Amino acid sequence: MRLRSTVLAAFGVLALAGPAFAATPTPDCHALLLDDADGDQALISTALPVRATVAIDIDDVFLTGPAGAEKVNIRVDDLTASPNTEYRFGWADPVNFGYSYRLDATFLTAAGAHGAGTYTLWHLDPNGSWISLRAASGRTFAGNDGVIQFDQHADAPWPGTFTGVNVSAHQYESAALTDVALRSDSASTGLWSQPC
Fold this sequence. Notes:
Blueprint: H1 5-11, E1 32-35, E2 42-43, E3 58-64, E4 71-78, E5 85-92, E6 100-107, E7 115-124, E8 130-141, E9 144-151, E10 161-172, E11 181-193
Antiparallel strand pairs: 1-3, 2-11, 3-4, 4-9, 5-6, 5-10, 6-7, 7-8, 8-9, 10-11
């Protein structure tokens, strides 16, 4: 996949280039953090024809890995055709009331593929200002039931109990990611404790 460097710098991108991974992650002892309904993405009317697709439909969210080194996984119905799409995972800061964190992975132009790259971690203060923290690593596992995986960030370790979790996908008409979204999907939960 080719990625525009300007958008990569501005938004943070999970770059789809690099080595393939052997097995797509599946839930382990953590079970599901979120289970989203199939086919519930919202189609938004625009001047351009909207193609029928399940590409950005979020299936579920889960953690994998040992305590202290868990990875967050967003499973998507079909991650082979997700151009111009932003995927986000957000949760409340467990220490500072009114603050929250958000991870962004941005896919541009072409279809998804296996690969490793970086994502951007954002921190929101109570005044509504987003502060971009340094990027960290992540990877994708493309295909049906494809997964976007985020490593734990040193500046925002996963809490034992997540609160205010929100996951979303927004697909746009172009790689500018500033026009009207063609389709959106989201899921949320107020409270989830890691079972392992």
